[in-house]
């Protein structure tokens, strides 16, 4: 008689997979991808190491899924900011601020998503999501050009520049060597840092001094 998987077994497998994802996310959030060792993840998830490889072909596949999950949350937040009331320039400023402020509130995860050295499969995801951000910004820039609040320009190129500028400007502040400093040494400067980043981006985009 052929083996047939029961609904109860499928549910148990789905629950085990979800625990693996949740605990891997936790490890990355606490210490980056470098701290997410398979043995540690298995222990936290309450499964055998081999169980992880029954759900994911490799460690890199698991990390790629965590990267997609974490970054999609951030892309969605940027999209929400771009959908708020106001002209395109105002909405873009809001979205850039959202990006920077969320990164600084969760520095280890943000570092992992933006700059931590990762395996090629995860790096492919990083490039894909940079493009996702750029596509959102490009649409808003085109809307701003039509509205007249943003000067005529190559919207695609400008959107790529925005993504590069904001990501690169956060690399230093998000670096684990910086975020390991006492909270009082870092949080006091967050507002001025975010304002500086936004001012640079918006001046470059609109040509207006802020």
From TrEMBL:
HTH tetR-type domain: residues covered: 14-74
Annotated GO MF terms:
DNA-binding transcription factor activity; transcription cis-regulatory region binding
Q: Which residues cross the membrane?
A: none
SUPFAM superfamilies for the chain: Homeodomain-like, Tetracyclin repressor-like, C-terminal domain
Keywords (A to Z) from UniProt? DNA-binding
DNA-binding region (UniProt annotation): 37-56
InterPro entries recorded:
Homeodomain-like_sf, HTH-type_TetR-like_transc_reg, HTH_TetR, KstR2_TetR_C, Tet_transcr_reg_TetR-rel_C_sf
Name the PROSITE patterns for this protein: HTH_TETR_2 (PS50977)
The name on file for this protein is Transcriptional regulator, TetR family
In the record, what lineage is assigned to the organism producing the protein?
A: Bacteria, Pseudomonadati, Pseudomonadota, Gammaproteobacteria, Pseudomonadales
């Amino acid at each position: 008689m052929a083996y047939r998987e029961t609904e109860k077994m499928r549910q148990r497998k789905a629950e085990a997979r979800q625990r693996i994802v949740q605990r891997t996310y936790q490890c990355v959030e606490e210490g980056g991808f470098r701290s997410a060792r398979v043995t540690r993840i298995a222990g936290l998830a309450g499964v055998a190491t081999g169980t992880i490889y029954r759900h994911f072909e490799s460690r890199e596949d698991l990390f790629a899924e965590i990267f997609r999950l974490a970054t999609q949350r951030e892309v969605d937040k940027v999209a929400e900011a771009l959908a708020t009331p106001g002209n395109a320039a105002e909405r873009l400023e809001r979205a850039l601020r959202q990006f920077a402020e969320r990164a600084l509130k969760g520095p280890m995860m943000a570092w992992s998503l933006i700059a931590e050295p990762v395996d090629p499969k995860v790096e492919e995801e990083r490039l894909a999501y940079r493009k996702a951000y750029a596509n959102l910004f490009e649409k808003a820039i085109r809307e701003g050009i039509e509205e007249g609040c943003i000067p005529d320009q190559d919207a695609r190129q400008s959107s790529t520049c925005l993504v590069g500028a904001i990501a690169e400007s956060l690399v230093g502040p998000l670096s684990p060597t910086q975020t390991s400093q006492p909270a009082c040494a870092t949080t006091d400067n967050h507002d001025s840092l975010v304002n500086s980043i936004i001012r640079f981006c918006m001046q470059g985009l609109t040509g207006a001094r802020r």
